[in-house]
Hints:
Layout: H1 8-12, H2 15-35, H3 47-76, H4 82-118, H5 140-155, H6 157-177
Helix pairs in contact: 2-3, 2-4, 3-4, 5-6
Amino acid sequence: MKWTPLYSLLIMEVEPFLIMAVGVDNIFIIVQRYQRLSDKATEPGDLSEKVSLICSEAAPSMLLTALCECMCFGFGALSTMPAVQTFSLYAALAIFFNFFLQLTLFLAVFVWDAKRQEAGALEMCCCVRMPTDMLSSESYMYRLFKCYYAPVLLGRDSVRYGTVCDQLNTPYSSRSHVHSLDVSIHQLACLFRDGCQSN
């Protein structure tokens, strides 16, 4: 039986999810840094100053993270296993282009959206405008964690101790139930055949 390199297609199906998980962190950093800028650059005409401050503070950490991830996947490409080698090469290349597009394409679209926000235009209906004094710089998620989640989680010692005990109990409970899990797909079932049988 002869196996073809088409098995790498299954590996490539995982690649987009990995790249999205890695890239969304940098996007959150850029957006959150824009929302947390100091008052010295909050005037509507200072958007270029805001973007320069974001890039000067967020881009170095993003660059170091991308370089470390590319190096790690580069070391993975030295493996003799074809599946690991293919996955590592594609992942390193995708992370590089991910970082490049975040500082070019995403930043351009982000500036475009920031102009819309400062003009008071709504997100879904850009033709509808609201007074800028009614707009809040704090997002709904930030207010949720600030006003509700953090006070409930950190307000009482009993809640904190219960959270720590629950997290410590998770590995032990998982270990006690791991033996009852069914075996996943067999490794040979994940490989494609070329339909040719060699005698």
